[in-house]
Amino acid sequence: MSTAAWLQLLLLIALLAISTPLLGAYLAKVYGGGHAPGDRVFGPIERLVYRLCGVDETKEQRWPTYAISLLAFSFVSVLILYAQLRLQNHLPMNPDGHNGVGAFLAFNTAVSFLTNTNWQNYSGESTMSHLSQMAGLTVHNFVSAAAGAAVAVALIRGLVRRRTATIGNFWVDLVRTTVRVLLPLAVVFTLVLVSQGVVQNFNGARTVTTVSGQTQTIPGGPVASQESIKELGENGGGPYNANSAHPFENPNPITNIIEIWMLLAIPFAFPWAFGLLAGDVKQGVAVLSAMVVLWLAVSLVAMAFETNGNPKLAAHGADQQVTALQGGGNMEGKETRFGPAASGLFAAATTGTSTGAVNSMHDSYTPIGGAAPLVNMMLGEVTPGGTGSGLYGMLLFALLSVFIAGLMVGRTPEYLGKKIQGPEMKLVVLYILIVPIVVLSFTAVSVVLSSALTSLHNTGPHGLTEVTYAYTSMGNNNGSAFAGLSGNTDWFNTTGAIAMLAGRFLLMIPVLAIAGSLGRKQAAPVSAGTFPTNTPLFATLLTGVVVIVVGLTYFPVVALGPVVEHLVGKF
Question: Quick check: helix, strand or coil at residue 353?
Answer without folding.
Answer: coil
